[in-house]
Amino acid sequence: MKPLKVGLLGFGTVGSGVWKVLQRNQGEISRRAGREIIITHVAARAADGSLERARAECRGITVLDDAAKIVRDPEIDIVCELIGGTTIARTLVLDAIAHGKHVVTANKALLAHYGTEIFAAAHDKGVMVAFEAAVAGGIPIIKALREGLSANRIEWIAGIINGTSNFILSTMRETGAPFAEVLKEAQRLGYAEADPTFDVEGVDAAHKLTIMASIAFGIPMQFDKAYAEGITKLTREDIRYAEELGYRIKLLGITRRVEEQGIELRVHPTLIPVKRLIANVEGAMNAVLVKGDAVGPTLYYGAGAGSEPTASAVIADLVDVTRMHTADPEHRVPHLAFQPDRLSTIPILPISEVCTSYYLRLRVLDQPGVLADITRILADHAISIEAFLQKEATHGEEVDIIVLTHHAIEKNVRAALAKIEALPSVKGECALIRMEGLY
Ligand code: HSE
Questions:
Q1: Whose alpha carbon is nearest atom 7 of ligand 1?
Q2: Do 93 and 179 share a domain, yes or no?
Q3: Same domain, yes or no, for 153 and 289?
Q4: Which residue's alpha carbon is at the smallest distance from atom 8 of ligand 1?
Q5: Residue 78 vs residue 235, higher pLDDT
Q6: Is the domain of 99 the same as that of 151?
Q7: pLDDT by residue (tens digit) across 268-308?
Q8: Closest by Cα among 16, 90, 67 to 310
Q9: CATH code of 64's domain
Q10: Residues 129/103, Cβ–Cβ less than 8 Å
Q11: What separation, in Å, do the N-terminal and C-terminal C-alpha atoms of the chain show?
């Protein structure tokens, strides 16, 4: 059989990894795919030096600076989009589909924003859009959710799905190094997005969570309704106090089905009991916990970023597309696991309606009546206290008080905090970090 021909768009961290791994494992890969998969064209940019690198590394194939040419080339069967971003990449992907090419992409931002449009176009054209590398790098979580768990009603997913922020949190906790220094190291190692604020502000994780929620619950991509809060406001004190209480702080992406109400879709720093496996996922590693009604909790762990781990997922998609290439579109695995005409209209819940438990840190004057005022306000808002800790004075007359709550509705907690912050004995803003038991 003739080899399947791939046009690779982008020769950055992931693109060069795909080239390397495909060359190295060519024999095994074609034995699995049932046919050879070869990269015949690469598009790269002169401005960032990737064009020169691609020309030096990819001998004997066509290397261009014009990706638009590749997506229209009748020779090409699969376009592999590894450019990133939501502007040029969107045009190229839609153009590739319009020209009858299958698409493999690692672009989570593109799918979270335009997935509905892209999958509809692919469906109309009878081509596949595969995106295993878009979520959690090398971990085959899309395949697990879409195929391995298809017997289940998914209850919730909680994941560490941004390697950069996990690397920063782990390194800061272990070494006490400052945020900016650790971020630079993550960028040097190739974990961070072109715009690292996407990593540290929870946006990248929200892109990935949006995609997982879609597949888990059979809903359209709704990134605009996701709640995203990053790690930039976390203090070293909060990390330390959490440890003292038996918790670790992780940036989690959480999506949960709340019966009769809707779907939670939220990314934020989260206290997790340190004894949970996922609390011990360190460095740039990712982990995704999925709770299905039949299977119970399952955990998927691996490298969530980096050149070859991400290439592993991209090439798995190339193999999948190659295998499915001849199957008629009606009998392929649907892009979002559920048949496109059977998506649910269940709403995404705003963060104010989320019900979870909370870590609250308040800085107060160490004087009589302060605790009584705080606990009364919490009680007035139907917030029950699970644990309470007062730290020794480290800020002159002021002390830190930590309150762990039982489950409460977020809008009640916010309303109570507004009243607490208005007390003359309370200094500055209170820290709020959500907590999840994860079982
Ligand atoms: N910037 C991402 C991360 C890369 O840090 O996880 C993989 O999507």
A1: 305
A2: no
A3: yes
A4: 305
A5: 78
A6: no
A7: 999 999 999 999 999 999 999 999 999 999 999 999 988 99
A8: 16
A9: 3.40.50.720
A10: yes
A11: 49
**Site residues for ligand 1, CB cut-off 6 Å:** 137, 162-164, 191-193, 199, 204, 304-305
Domain containing residue 419 = 351-435
- Residue with the smallest CA separation from ligand 1 atom 4 is 305
- Rounded to 5 degrees, φ, ψ at 262 are 165, -160
Q: Which 3 state secondary structure label does DSSP give 29? A: helix
Tokens in use for 438? 């994860």
Summarised one tens digit per residue, pLDDT across range 204-226 is 999 999 999 999 999 999 999 99
Instruction: Report the interhelical angle of 13-24 vs 307-324 (nearest 10°).
Output: 60
Contact (Cβ atoms closer than 8 angstroms) between residue 138 and residue 312? yes
- 126/219 same-domain check: no
Domain of 424, CATH number, reads: 3.30.70.260
Q: Closest Cα to residue 13, out of 205, 207, 186, 199? A: 186
Picking from 284, 319, 342, the residue at the C-terminal end of a domain is 342
Local confidence band at 411 (pLDDT 50, 70, 90 cut-offs): very high
Number of structural domains in the chain: 3
**Co-location of 221 and 167 in the same domain:** yes
The catalytically annotated residue of 208, 275, 291, 391 is 208
Distance CA 344, CA 3 (A): 39
Tokens (6 digits) for 130: 């595969």
The first and second tokens of residue 270, run together, are: 């989260």
- Cα–Cα distance measured from residue 370 to residue 377, given in angstroms and rounded to the nearest whole number: 11
Q: Are residues 299 and 197 in the same domain?
A: yes
- The enclosing domain of 158 has a CATH number of 3.30.360.10
Look-up of token digits 């990894």: 17
Do 261 and 315 lie in one domain? The reply is no
User: What is the atom index within ligand 1 of the atom nearest the CA of 196?
Assistant: 1
pLDDT higher than 80, residue 167: yes
The atom number, within ligand 1, closest to the CA of 164 reads 5
Q: What is the Å distance from ligand 1's center to 100 Cα?
A: 30
At 311-330, the pLDDT tens digits run: 999 999 999 999 998 888 88
In the annotation, is 208 catalytic? yes
- Residue range 93-108: average pLDDT? 98
Asked if residue 296 and residue 150 are part of one domain, the reply reads yes
Atom of ligand 1 nearest to the CA of 108: 8
Taking each helix axis as running N to C, give the angle between helix 26-33 and helix 307-324, from 0 to 180 degrees, rounded to the nearest 10.
30
Q: How confident is the model at residue 11 (pLDDT cuts 50, 70, 90)?
A: very high
Q: Which phi and psi (to 5°) does residue 265 adopt?
A: -145, 95
Compute the Cα dihedral for 266, 269, 272, 276 and give only its sign: positive
Q: Could you tell me the pTM of the whole model? A: 0.94
